[in-house]
Amino acid sequence: MNISSHLPFRQVHLDFHTSEAIPGIGSAFRPDEWAQTLREAHVNSVTCFSCCHHGWSYHPTRVGAMHPHLGFNLLRAQIDAAHACGIRVPVYLTAGNNQRLAMEHPEWREITPDGRYMGWAPTPLSAGFSKLCLNSGYLEVLRALCEETVELFPDADGIFLDIICQGQCCCPGCVTDMLREGFDPESEADRIRFARRTLLNYYRVITAACRKFNPDMPVFHNSGHIPRGDREILPYFSHLELESLPTGGWGYDHFPVSAAYCRKLPFEFIGMTHTCPNKLLKG
């Protein structure tokens, strides 16, 4: 399949964060209908999921856990059907979130300086995803997931990693490492510096994992925005994707400002829109 190297004009980010409580995942998937729907929408790139925020993989995996209600290799079927008609498929992996692992390994969760678990759920009984610490044993699992994904899907048209951030974590591992490396955990300035050290280590380790078998594999690390002024992280990117949902918290002024900044960077960039899974993917 010969697909040109420049970025696509019409790309869709197919959000597919699917709870284990949902049955029949992919049971109505029809490759021909899938491809025809994309063609009719004039889509030339669609980001599909390897591992979602719930922690489930959409293909057989040795490292992670396949969605309990998925009975076949959905990601492989999506890639094959799309590639057959010249449509790219970058592959998505969650990074900052993985609810399955957060429940199995609470010691890997990010802890705020005031002792709370970081995340998007205000209480333990509230719905929401938990934030994982990138200075914990989780980073090794994420590295292995990325390496497995690019090994299983060498024809992927890129790797998209999501929720790339690190707060002033005070989990036992971070406090121990801060003390050993000469940081003061009681100093906010030192906690911020240590979080930055952790984040840069993430970029090094995970970008290398994504390019283990193909040094030219496109990689994008998403944090919901392009951090303006932060050029230290740019060597770990192959291109930029501007996530900007006007009614999703970004606002209508976000995209033009972000695009104006990115025009001055040495990268191609595209706008990133979202769509929900359609009837072709749901049972």
TrEMBL record:
Parts of the chain that traverse the membrane: none
Keyword Metal-binding (UniProt): no
A Gene Ontology molecular function term of the record: hydrolase activity
SUPFAM superfamilies: (Trans)glycosidases
A matching Pfam family: GHL6
Keywords: Hydrolase
Name this polypeptide is given: Putative glycosyl hydrolase-like family 6 (GHL6) protein
Native species: Victivallis vadensis
